[in-house]
UniProtKB/TrEMBL annotation:
PROSITE patterns associated with the record: ATP_GRASP
Species lineage: Bacteria, Bacillati, Bacillota, Bacilli, Bacillales
InterPro entries according to UniProt: ATP-dep_AA_Ligase, ATP-grasp, ATP-grasp_PylC-type, ATP_grasp_subdomain_1, PylC_N
Source species, domain of life: Bacteria
Domain ATP-grasp residue range list: 120-296
Pfam families: ATP-grasp_3, PylC-like_N
Protein name: ATP-grasp domain-containing protein
Record PANTHER family: ATP-GRASP ENZYME FSQD, FUMIPYRROLE BIOSYNTHESIS PROTEIN C
Length: 322
């Protein structure tokens, strides 16, 4: 029996830090293997071993990944991109059958929160504060007339990510232009305030949140948190605990929250390592360790709020040559 704890990271892209953290945690206990559909993904070359694979939506992708898992005796597999989370969850059993644990939330939770309108409906129904949203222009115009909402509003793709195609809109004319050009848009009230990114770990065995790390975003760049500061806020910890209790998330998730006039509103959830996770790790939030504990059938103890407040994170570029 091979007892090594080999890990596979799918669609690693530019997330070199994540690969480094897993390698650091594993030490001699196993290997970190990475895949990407491009040979120009720098994180590939950070891993102990890597594969350039076909695109996720191409035929044969599942078999290709399953055979990499078999060949390398992979204990756990995770992905760093949104569209692949559903894929992993959907094929969970195929991975379990070959002894590989998909480190991912349940399919229903992933699908629900991939859709920003269903996210709004779900949070609303469960009395959790969220951002007022419309899918339908006519409904929006009706509320505009009744002054239930005012310009500016925020318009973005209902299934968007990486801040692609996001717009602040101040008139009907602008709104019409966007709706003529693009399908599947969502209209939201414009949230004018502070933004927070919250990294949460939910134990795969106890299903309890074991870590909640809150950072206030100071600057965004290319859809990722570029500069941020760690904060502790009881009201936010409580909101996140309530949220976790009513959802089916597992493992690492990243929650976006707005603060407007002292109130917190949940905006969106990405059930994967967020782009700002390195801030949490560098402040002692060791998610690779929590994952390895779970893979070894160990329950993690709660470490909620176990970090220093006021720590700044500033990203900077590095270069990989091969
Ligand atoms: N309703 C809103 N009001 C103001 N700004 C918003 C609103 N929705 C999104 N944004 C801004 O756009 C960014 C991207 O939107 P988000 O919904 O998080 O989509 P993505 O999936 O692209 O991260 C957010 O981080 C925030 O800065
Ligand atoms: Mg976001």
């Amino acid at each position: 029996m091979d007892n090594s704890l080999n890990i596979l990271v799918l669609s690693c892209g530019t997330r070199n830090k994540i690969i480094q953290y897993f390698k650091r945690e594993l030490g001699e206990k196993g290997a970190v293997i990475a895949t990407d559909c491009s040979p120009l993904a720098p994180a590939l070359y950070e891993a102990d071993k890597h594969y350039v694979v076909r695109r996720m939506n191409e035929k044969g992708y599942l078999d290709e990944i399953l055979s990499i898992c078999k060949e390398n005796n992979i204990k756990g597999v995770l992905s760093l991109i949104d569209p692949e989370l559903s894929f992993l969850a959907k094929h969970k059993q195929d991975f379990l059958d070959i002894g590989t644990f998909p480190i991912v939330s349940d399919h229903d939770a992933i699908e629900l929160f991939f859709d920003k309108y269903r996210t709004f409906e779900f949070l609303n129904q469960n009395n959790l504060p969220t951002v007022k949203s419309y899918l339908n222009k006519t409904d929006f115009y009706k509320d505009l007339e009744n002054r239930k909402i005012n310009y500016p509003v925020f318009v973005k793709p209902v299934n968007g990510s990486a801040s692609i195609n996001i717009n602040k809109v101040t008139s009907n004319e602008e709104l019409e232009i966007l709706f003529n050009r693009f399908d599947n848009l969502i209209i939201q009230e414009f949230m004018d305030g502070n933004e927070y990114g919250i990294d949460v770990y939910i134990d795969f065995i106890s299903l309890e949140p074991t870590s909640i790390f809150i950072k206030k975003k100071l600057k965004m760049r290319g859809g990722e948190t570029d500069k941020s500061i760690s904060v502790k806020e009881e009201k936010l910890f409580d909101l996140i605990k309530k949220f976790v209790a009513i959802t089916n998330f597992k493992g690492i998730i990243d929650i976006d929250v707005f603060e407007v006039r002292g109130e917190y509103y949940i905006s969106e959830v990405n059930p994967r390592f967020g782009g700002g996770y390195p801030h949490a790790y560098e402040n002692g939030i060791n998610v690779p360790k929590m994952i390895f504990n779970n893979l070894n059938s160990l329950v993690n103890k709660s470490e909620i709020g176990d970090y220093q407040e006021g720590k700044l994170m500033m990203k900077y570029s590095e270069i990989k040559t091969i």
